[in-house]
Amino acid sequence: MNIVxxxxxxxxxxxxxxxxxxxxxxxxxxxxxxxxVNPTDKNALEAGLALRxxxxxxxxxxxxxxxxxxxxxxxxxxMGADEAYILSDRAFGGADTFATSYTxxxxxxxIGIEADIVxxxxxxxxxxxxxxxxxxxxxxxxxxxxxxxxxxxxxxxxKVKKKTPNGYVAYEVELPAVIGIARGANKPRMVTxxxxxxxxxxxxxxxxxxxxxxxxxxxxLPGSPTQPGSFIEPDMARAGVKIEGEPEEIADKIIxxxxxxxxxx
Amino acid sequence: MNVHFTEEQKMLQQAxxxxxxxxxxxxxxxxxxxxxxxxxxxxLVGELxxxxxxxxxxxxxVGLGHVERIIAMEExxxxxxxxxxxxxAHQLAVGGMNDFGTEEQKKQYLPGMCxxxxxxxxxxxxxxxxTDLYNHKVTAEKDGDDYxxxxxxxxxxxxxxxxxxxVTAKTGTDAKGRNVLSAFIVPMDNEGIKPGRLENKSGxxxxxxxxxxxxxxxxxxxxxxxxDGQGAQIALKEIxxxxxxxxxxxxxxxxxxxxxxxxxxxxxxxxxxKPLAKIQAIQWHIAExxxxxxxxxxxxYRAACYKDEGQATTLWNGMAKLFAxxxxxxxxxHCIELMGGYGVITEYPVDRYMRDALAAISxxxxxxxxxxxxxxxxxxxxx
Lengths: 265, 383
Prior knowledge:
By secondary structure, chain A is α/β, with parallel strands linked by helices. In chain A, 27% of the residues lie in helices and 26% in strands. In chain B, a hairpin with a 5-residue loop joins strand 4 and strand 5 (179-187).
């Protein structure tokens, strides 16, 4: 069984207090913040590894990210993936989900994968759009379903449960298909010392724009239909106002301030 | 010696840190309070690869070295010194088996020691003392093809939760009348061995330490580890190279935890309208803790590198342990002083760090013993 798992390195959510937006490029400034494998992508990887353990075959990790994120992709190899590919090029930078999903699918073509199943985390910890799975499915013209909390594969069909606000909906999806795994769907296996050693000998290939057959209109920031508009950073500064006078006078002034702020008393 | 971790070592460090955060951090305070040892996590640590990290793959280990082992001890020690003591006490026996076991013994025992199937301990210290090996009282008398062990061991970690115990015992005397010690593998289902008193330690709780009582404990001659008379060598090598190094690494972990706790508190606590961290007197505490941590770290990894290179490590492990145990106590005190009253409130972990650091001083050789070793080497090297 050929299992493709899409992975995204994201800023460590534990360090979100250090994140800021560049006012000019309107993109996240990631300097000084550690990257981790997107937590939900680890659930997707675990689902893929479990399928491989059951049916045989291989798990191929594909990520579109800067090459300095290689340690996060190597972590996926240490978890048990068989090979990994990084699609890295400055021209891919600033891509929205449309451009990213296109680039990933072109990457699959370059790698020459006949995937039986494509998995990914339901959403990323930074963007959290939850759009990638359906967009990859559309580019590949394959059935796709997201937010999956349980999955069983039998006779070329994935029997899945899609989480809903009130429970779940069960689907049977003919493979090949693209499936988004929800957080909590499983417990990702830990990276072991032996896994780290084995990862050294597993192939990690980096492809740039020149290696892929890509249409310039669909890649990077220029190829992204979603463009950031204006953004406002809330002013978190607080200043005290000293109100002087007799107690009753002060109370009246406070009531005035509250009323002027729009609160009904 | 490389001052930087390799890419592989960085990945291991991250894996060990994540394990510590997920499995140890949530319960470390509880194990300390209950004085309990979470043996249920032992197979998981085996799966992680830490128990036999330095054991060759052919015997079920990972085939790495002692730098990697120390990385694990530091990361685990940062979160739970007690749990880490439980692990390295087992590794004393792993080291003994790996270094001195026969091919048959290694094949029989090492896989289970590495994957966490069986918990081991090493029983050397006796009520009369730990360092004074040649006056130990536990005996092993030859009886046909067997040995019969009698006596009492004390202060051994994993006394009450081990499946096997390696026991050193007197098998004779040399020409100078000194004890000849040998080591024996004793399974705990042998009716002649049983745990005795369980000590109530002030620190390193999360591991169990106590006595081991041997009463006409009959073992076959094939249970001897190493050769007849190698018991002292086994004890000194494993306690000196694995025990001391582990204790030092745990203390470095404690020092890191003190820095993290101190920095967090100093940044969060507002006094005179600004964070505590802005006050120079507080920064001095931070600086001292950082200095302690970095020096301790430099020493333990240097000693571990020497061990992996096959060089003698007695001096370096002695210096590392002397410094790291002292510095960990000092760092915990800095952290407590920095935090004021909160430093001794048990809701914060610093009181545990202090007790753990104090408990690390004596095991594996007191500071006075290390000073003797350091002085002897210095008088010779610098003469």
